[in-house]
Amino acid sequence: MSLAFGRHYLAIPGPSVIPDRVLGAMHRAAPNIYQGELVEMMPGLLRDLRRVAGTEKANVAIYIANGHGAWEAANANLFSRGNKVLSAVTGHFGNTWALSARNMGIDVETIDFDKSPVDPARIEEALRADRAHRIKAVFVTHTDTATTIRNDIEAVRKAIDDAGHPALLAVDAIASLGCDPLHFDTWGIDVLISASQKGLMTPPGLSFIWFSDKALAASEGSELVTPYWDWKLRSQSTEFYRYFGGTAPTHHLYGLREALTMLLDEEGLEAAWKRHAALASSVWAAFKAWSRDSDIALNVADKTRRSHSVTGARIGNGGAMRLREWLEKNAGVTLGIGLGMAPPTEPAYGDYLRVAHMGYVNAHMTLGVLSAMEAGMRSLGVPHGTGALDAAAQAIAEAI
Ligand SMILES: *Cc1c(COP(=O)(O)O)cnc(C)c1O
């Protein structure tokens, strides 16, 4: 027997759950792209994109692309072949961004923190060693969605400043924007990358780059950029189509408009951050109980460095893969695969999973997933500590 009939819940770290209101806003005939509502929507959209990133002064470029596209856009705008970047890698996503730069001919120096959070002292050390100031930017992933580490961006800024180095701070916040506190201006970020399909609750297909005037100046003369990806053309536009280098992504813009209204004007950004923190605390509480006397452990031991939008964990002996399959088949829940924790060719690959609590997710959804996971562990005979659901409920009760 299966109990999967009912609304399926895709509890993976993107695409996240799309609110019905966002879907509804997109469900319309092709709108007028010359004048009227859509064109008039643009100043408000740009204003709200700044609000969600905690900036009053950043330039904003919108791309019809996923996050990989925004990575390449940032690479292209910032660099010429042979320019140097320092990349802090704390998981699969940091690695992939660095690889995209390397494949574009950029000289990438990597500090691999081996699936641990960034140690700012090592960034400072690498920058101090760069006496000629060849390093043009430091890449950091805010939340590495694979390990589910959340790095301390302010500490990286401080490391750059303490080293007396002019490098730009470039941050990938695709998995954290709208979920975890993020302040472009006060954290001294120069380049921020995000995308529509995670905390912004909109289908995949839009990505965004916020960039400081310092980054804009540093991008002058970059040889890698082509007109379509040029962030200057996109951010300093006077005609509507130029924001998009062609036809606007009409329906995505309507969806994004609705999502930003829900996030910023109805729930409120700080309330959304608190909701994510509370949901995360219930997931951590459950795992703490499950991990007692068992082969279960969270990926990130340090609580202060855990993402609030997604939690990665190990359930040994292939337990994670079996549990994912059980949940899909019997409970109508899809959990995230364990990305980059072990090669897909090795048995250990089956030991990792991720539970997303990202975007349009409330208490009953997360508690429901945890309960379904407990049922799956019991059904499969996966050894686990007791009291997880009590602990998860307690965490929610305490957070309210
Ligand atoms: C999802 C994600 C990406 C990749 O985004 P795509 O839209 O799949 O290209 C990059 N970085 C982080 C941190 C992500 O979470």
From TrEMBL:
<feature type="domain" description="Aminotransferase class V">
    <location>
        <begin position="37"/>
        <end position="339"/>
    </location>
</feature>
<comment type="similarity">
    <text>Belongs to the class-V pyridoxal-phosphate-dependent aminotransferase family.</text>
</comment>
<dbReference type="InterPro" id="IPR015422">
    <property type="entry name" value="PyrdxlP-dep_Trfase_small"/>
</dbReference>
<keyword id="KW-0663">Pyridoxal phosphate</keyword>
<feature type="binding site">
    <location>
        <position position="354"/>
    </location>
    <ligand>
        <name>substrate</name>
    </ligand>
</feature>
<keyword id="KW-0670">Pyruvate</keyword>
<dbReference type="Pfam" id="PF00266">
    <property type="entry name" value="Aminotran_5"/>
</dbReference>
<dbReference type="GO" id="GO:0008453">
    <property type="term" value="F:alanine-glyoxylate transaminase activity"/>
</dbReference>
<protein>
    <submittedName>
        <fullName>Alanine-glyoxylate transaminase/serine-glyoxylate transaminase/serine-pyruvate transaminase</fullName>
    </submittedName>
</protein>
<dbReference type="InterPro" id="IPR024169">
    <property type="entry name" value="SP_NH2Trfase/AEP_transaminase"/>
</dbReference>
<dbReference type="GO" id="GO:0019265">
    <property type="term" value="P:glycine biosynthetic process, by transamination of glyoxylate"/>
</dbReference>
<dbReference type="InterPro" id="IPR020578">
    <property type="entry name" value="Aminotrans_V_PyrdxlP_BS"/>
</dbReference>
<dbReference type="InterPro" id="IPR015421">
    <property type="entry name" value="PyrdxlP-dep_Trfase_major"/>
</dbReference>
<dbReference type="InterPro" id="IPR015424">
    <property type="entry name" value="PyrdxlP-dep_Trfase"/>
</dbReference>
<feature type="modified residue" description="N6-(pyridoxal phosphate)lysine">
    <location>
        <position position="198"/>
    </location>
</feature>
<dbReference type="InterPro" id="IPR000192">
    <property type="entry name" value="Aminotrans_V_dom"/>
</dbReference>
<dbReference type="GO" id="GO:0004760">
    <property type="term" value="F:L-serine-pyruvate transaminase activity"/>
</dbReference>
